[in-house]
Amino acid sequence: MADLAKYAAQAGNSKGRLHKELQSDYRDEYQRDRDRIIHSAAFRRLEHKTQVFINYKGSMKRTRRTDPRGVSHDNIFHHSEYRTRLTHSMEVAQIGRTIARALSLNEDLTEAICLAHDLGHTPFGHAGQDALNKSMADFGGFEHNMQSLRIVDSLEEKYAEFPGLNLTFETREGILKHCSRVQARSLGELGKRFLHRRQPGLEAQIANIADTIAYNHHDIDDGIRAGLIHFEKLMECMLFRQQYEAVKKTWPDLTSNRMRHEVIRRMINQQVSDLIETSQENIAANDPRGIDEVRASAEPMIGMSNTMQTMNMELKRFLQNNLYQHPHVKAENKQAKTMVRALFAAYSEDPGLLPQNDTHVGCEKKIADYIASMTDGFAIDQFNRIKT
Ligand code: MG
Questions:
Q1: 198 — phi, psi (to 5°)?
Q2: Cα 52 to ligand 1 centroid, rounded to whole Å
Q3: How does DSSP classify residue 103?
Q4: How many CB atoms lie within 10 A of CB 78?
Q5: How far does the centroid of ligand 1 lie from the alpha carbon of residue 26, in Å?
Q6: What is the per-residue pLDDT across 26-66, written as a single tens digit (0 to 9) for each?
C-alpha cells in the first residue's frame, strides 16, 4: 500500500498473530485478515440476520422466473430489501475505506475491521442480544462485541493448526470496541487499553464511527420505506432538514424515492467530509510520530466537529424515539426476545437438543454460542420445533 501516513498501521510492523504463521507471497497481513473474514461461516450468516427489521420468512416475496433454456427458478426477495447485518457491514466498510484512504491510513485494515465488527451478532438484532444477555446473567452475560472476538479467536473452524481465524493484533484490537474491566484483565495485551484508558489505532477509530454513520442513515432509509417514519417528521432534525430543503429547491418535483436517496446520500457525504477534515486537524494538533503515540493518547483523534456531533445526537435521538421505539418494531422485538429466551431455557433443560450433545460444565456458554450463531430464520424454526 503506497504512501501511508507515519501514524498508520503498517502490515510489516504488526504486533502479529496469536499463532505464528509464514508470510504470504502476494498479500500483506491485513489483506489476509480481510480475506479470512470474508471466507468465514460467521460472515456468510450475517446475510440472514436482522439489522432493525426482522427477516421473517413470511415476509419474503417468492417469484418464479424462466431462463432462456426454459428452466424455471425460484427468486426469493426479502420484503422491500431492508438492510441485513451483511449489507450493513458492507456499507460500514465502504464508508470506512473512503475515510481511511483520504487520511492516508491503512485501507485494508480498516476494511477488515468493518467487515468483522458485527460477526458476533445474535439473530434479531439488539433484541436478540438483550434477551441472550439476560439468559446468561448468571454465567458471565453476553455481549455481541465480545462474541465477534470470540468467533475470530476460537469458534471458526477453518485451519488445521489453530482454532479461529488467527487474525492480527490490529484487527482484533479494532473488533473489540468496548469491554468491562473484568473482561479486559482476561484479554492480556488486547485488554490493556481499557484498563489504562488508551486508544486503539486510527483504523479502529474509523471503523467505530463508520458504523454509526452507516446505521443512522440506512435506518432512516429503511424506516421511511417501512412507513414507520416520514419526511415531515424528519424535518425536526437539522441534518435532514438542511439537505432536504437544498434538494427541494433545485428539484422541486423529485419522486419520493429519488428524494430520499438524494437527501440521505448528501447527509452521509456531509458527515464523512466533516469527519475527514476534523480528524485531519486533530491529527495535526497531536502530531503522532507513529501508531504507538496514537495508542498512547487519552482521546481519539478520529472524530467530527462539535457542531456535527450535536446534530448527530439530535438524529440519534430522533431514531431512538421514532423508529427503534416504534410500536411495530417494539412488537417484533418482544416476539424475538421471547423466542431467544425460550431457546435458551429449552437447551439448558435438555442439552441433548444441542447439535453436539455437550453436557459438561460451562454448557451455558456453548448454548449462547449456538444461539448467537443462528440466523433469524433458523432461530424461528428451532423455536417452533421446541414449542411443539
Ligand atoms: Mg454495526
A1: -110, 180
A2: 11
A3: T
A4: 17
A5: 30
A6: 999 999 999 999 999 999 999 999 877 765 443 444 445 55
Rounded to a whole number, what is the distance in angstroms from the first to the last CA of the chain? 56
CA angle 361, 366, 368 (to 5 degrees): 125
Q: Which of 32, 3, 11 is nearest to 203 (CA)?
A: 11
For 170, the grid coordinates are 490490529
**By 3-state DSSP, what share of the chain in percent is helix, strand and coil, each rounded to 5?**
65, 5, 30
What's the CA-to-centroid distance between 96 and ligand 1, angstroms? 12
Res 57: pLDDT: 41
What the block records as the C-alpha cell of 234 is 424528519
pLDDT value at position 70? 62
Stretch 310-315: mean pLDDT, rounded? 97
CA of 192 to the centre of ligand 1 (A): 23
Tell me, in angstroms, the distance from the centre of ligand 1 to residue 54's CA.
16
User: How does DSSP classify residue 191?
Assistant: G
Task: State the distance from the centre of ligand 1 to the C-alpha of 118, rounded, in angstroms.
Answer: 5
Predicted confidence (pLDDT) per residue in 130-158, tens digit: 999 999 999 999 999 999 999 999 999 99
Q: Which three cell numbers stand for residue 246?
A: 437544498
Residue 386 burial by CB count (10 A; 0-12/13-18/19+): exposed, middle or buried?
Answer: middle
Is the pLDDT assigned to residue 322 strictly greater than 50? yes
- Please give the distance, rounded to the nearest whole angstrom, from the Cα atom of residue 379 to the centre of ligand 1: 21
Spell out a b/e string for 139-175, using b for 16 or more CB atoms within 10 Å of the CB, else e.
Answer: eeebbbbbbbbbbbbebbeeeeeeebbbbbbbbbbbb
